[in-house]
Amino acid sequence: MTASMPEPSPAPTRTRPTAPARKRTVLAWSLWDWGSAAFNAVVTTFVFSVYITQPAFGPEHQVTAQLGTALLVAGIIVALLAPIAGQLSDAAGKRKLWLGVNTLVVVAATMLLVLVAPEPNFLMLGLVLLAIGNVAFEFASVSYNAMLSQVSTNANVGRVSGFGWGMGYLGGIVLLALLLVGFVFPDPGWFGVTHEGGWNIRIAMVVSAAWFALSAIPVFFAVPEIGEDPTRTPGVRGIVTAYATLGRSIANLWRTARQTLFFLVASAVFRDGLAGVFTFGGVIAARSFGFDNTTVIIFAIVANVVAGIATITAGFIEDRAGAKAIMVWSILLMVASALLVFILAPLGTWVFWVFGLVLCIFVGPVQSASRTFLTRLIPEGREGEIFGLYATTGRAVSFLAPAAFTLAVTLGGAAIFGILGIALVLLVGLVLLVPVRGR
């Protein structure tokens, strides 16, 4: 069974590039990844998620479980809406428009986190804004990932994808360093912001929102819109019939491109494990290894350095060795690192520094390779639709990592047990990936 998908009717308004895009175009596209660190690294991983699980908001296990629930609800919304959103943006030629709209929502949700004071009454506000930001970020990522085919060819898609993802990590380094020395560590900070009332973290959210907004601007000028597809039906009628079209698309994948469908399922599972690493990594560091806010951010900076370098390097290797090899070996080594963190935890904080950083080396290469593996399979003109399905399959099982983490913490009675739940999700994803065949 071949992994390729049948070509749709040709749309003369759009063609994939046969020659590499200009370097400045690739750079402008990758700057969105650079700016996205404001949400990925600062909000969901190392700063706000740690802030909102502090004792000031309630008991540790209760707040951590509520955080997982909020992300679960966000995942369900994405699972229901992402594929038709990508499908309709492809049809109407509005890929860049919806990237802009959803990026704006993420920026607004991030900025409004300034209102979340360290009191139990503000916990729900923080969780709702976090969920809204996660939904909009996933929708924006559908459009952004679909653009990869516009700025790369089959010969260099691994390098371009790796460069973009690496830029995200490097952007995280710069932003986290700025927040560390400007707000988190000194009291008062460079700009006179004190730690009282959590204002150092809250103002850091405003800075993060501005960072993302400014970094996202270049892509809207450098990468052209795809143009309307005359072979499809956009608009209101398209919304009504979108789910039926989605069903036919999945059935078509089963009949003619079963390996692609298998990959969507496998990647959904291991990508949810990766999301668990990002979402709960800072919580484990703070609650199980005694990292304070400053230490968590220092770890995040170092982690982003090694992850950025590893991802960009893996992109060059991937174009020669293949995306699947990168994914399999990276996931395997991540599982081993997670188990070592759990087993050796009683030996002290150096365990998280060593094996946590080893784990971080492989997160980026898996994400980038997964994106390029799918990009090589998607027929021209259906990038948004398939990446929407990519997001949906991921979110359809998005309960796995939060549920496995929450269950492990509940059964074990401590946050450190959560890493076993995340490792299990990664391992299941690896088992599903191994038999998948690509081009």
Write a structural description.
The protein has 439 residues and is mostly helical. The chain has a single domain (23-219, 235-433), classed as Growth Hormone, Chain: A (Up-down Bundle), CATH 1.20.1250.20. The protein is 74% helix and 0% strand. The protein is built from 15 helices and no strands. α1 (23-46) packs antiparallel against α5 (123-146) and α11 (323-344) packs antiparallel against α15. The radius of gyration is 21 Å and the shape is globular. Mean pLDDT is 82; it is low at 1-15 and 233-237.
Concise description?
By secondary structure, the chain is an all-alpha fold.
Q: Per CATH, which architecture?
A: Up-down Bundle
- For the secondary structure, the number of strands is 0
Apparent shape: globular
CATH topology-level name: Growth Hormone, Chain: A
**Count of the domains:** 1
Residue share in helix: over 70%
Taking the alpha carbons of the first and last residues, their distance comes to 11 Å
User: Per DSSP, what share of the residues sits in E-state strands of 2 or more residues?
Assistant: under 5%
Query: Uncertain spans, ≥5 residues at pLDDT below 50?
Result: 1-15, 233-237
Mean pLDDT: 82
CATH superfamily: MFS general substrate transporter like domains
User: Structural class of the secondary elements?
Assistant: mainly alpha
Q: According to CATH, what is the class?
A: Mainly Alpha
Largest sheet: none
Individual helix count? 15
